[in-house]
Write a structure and sequence with these properties.
By secondary structure, the chain is an alpha+beta fold. The chain contains twelve helices and ten strands. The strands form two sheets. A seven-stranded mixed beta sheet has the order 1-5-6-10-9-8-7, with helices on both faces. Strands 2-4-3 form a three-stranded antiparallel beta sheet.
């Protein structure tokens, strides 16, 4: 009988149930009415009196140990299942839809413009936002007294030598000419900075995309055709362009490019101020002085350059009337471009 009791004590100690039902089965087998303990109690009645003391103590020990162990195992199992249901949540609840973010309209338009020009063989070039005088002005044929060099237009960081925030991404074109020989065909997207009062049509930080194409025999007609292709791709099949004479220090001749107003179809409306045309960019044939400043032979090579404001193109494309909306990141505004992906 003593062996039997010790064997049960060992079982109680080693028992490790995986589920509550297993524990309950074990409890019934040991402590139940018709369980092992009661059977031993029955047997105990007929043991010899000199053995009663020792066996009685062992039986009590078994009873207490089994009761304690079963209670603590029960608690363990309960804690484990509570933890599990807290971490996996209510699996029967209907799922809630995750709202996906959308691309910023400026990114959408920039990506589209880059994509259109990459089809024409342009690659993307990059450059720093903090620049020196040479890359932003001098290498681009700006005369020393040009008003763009004025504090009123340019954010200077240091004077003599001048370190400044680039006012246009033409600086990337200079950096490209420094490290690459013609043929050059690059598109330069980036942030630019001008010391302007913030209004519905101007901001001190905005985005530009400029392009540069230099090779032997590049003509004004090549430029016009490339920009017409661009305008049709971005504003639609029926878009026309016109060019008006203009002036930039780094191009000669220079022109301002207008597209036919896509809102009124060229008849004249409030957006195009009755003219039927919308100004979208500046362009021109690269001035021989710029080629010379960058060690490119103007007798052998010619090229064209163009530059546009991404905010302006996006305003015209999406009918946005206030440029400041692009910088405020109001989700009610941004969500309107969910579908534009
Ligand atoms: N850099 C000019 C600007 O910022 C745009 C431009 C680029 C004009 C290239 C002509 C040629 O306004």
């Amino acid at each position: 009988m003593i062996d039997k009791i010790n064997e049960l004590l060992r079982q109680v100690e080693e028992f490790k149930p995986k589920a509550a039902s297993e524990l309950e089965e074990f409890r019934i087998r040991i402590l139940g009415k018709k369980g092992e303990l009661n059977a031993l109690m029955e047997e105990f009645k007929s043991v010899a009196p000199e053995l009663k003391r020792q066996l009685g103590q062992q039986l009590n020990l078994l009873k207490n140990k089994a009761t304690e162990r079963i209670a603590s195992l029960r608690e363990e199992l309960q804690n484990a299942s509570a933890e599990q249901s807290a971490s996996s949540g209510d699996l029967t609840r209907p799922g809630s839809a995750e709202h996906l973010g959308s691309r910023h309209p400026i990114s959408l338009v920039r990506n589209q413009i880059v994509e259109v020009f990459s089809r024409l063989g342009y690659t993307v070039a990059d450059g720093p936002e903090i620049e020196d005088d040479w890359h932003v002005f001098s290498a681009l044929n700006f005369p020393p007294e040009h008003p763009a060099r004025d504090m009123q237009d340019t954010f200077f960081i240091e004077k003599d030598p001048d370190i400044l925030l680039r006012t246009h991404t033409s600086s990337i074109q200079v950096r490209t000419m420094e490290r690459q020989r013609p043929p050059i065909r690059v598109i330069c997207p980036g942030r630019v900075f001008r010391n302007e009062a913030i209004s519905y049509r101007a901001h001190c930080i905005f985005h530009q995309i400029e392009g540069l194409y230099i090779d032997e025999g590049v003509s004004f007609a090549d430029m016009k055709q490339s920009l017409l292709y661009f305008a049709k791709e971005v504003f639609g099949e029926h878009t026309a362009i016109r060019m008006r004479p203009s002036y930039f220090p780094f191009t000669e001749p220079s022109a301002e490019v207008d597209v036919s107003c896509n809102l009124c179809g060229g008849k004249g409306c409030a957006v195009c101020k009755g003219t039927g045309w919308l100004e979208i960019m500046g362009c021109g044939m690269v001035d021989p002085n710029v080629l010379k400043a960058n060690n490119i032979d103007p007798e052998k090579y010619s090229g064209f350059a163009f530059g546009m404001g991404v905010e302006r193109i996006a305003m015209l494309k999406y009918g946005v009337k206030d440029l400041r909306l692009y910088f405020e990141n109001d989700v009610r505004f941004l969500h309107q471009f969910d579908q534009a992906l």
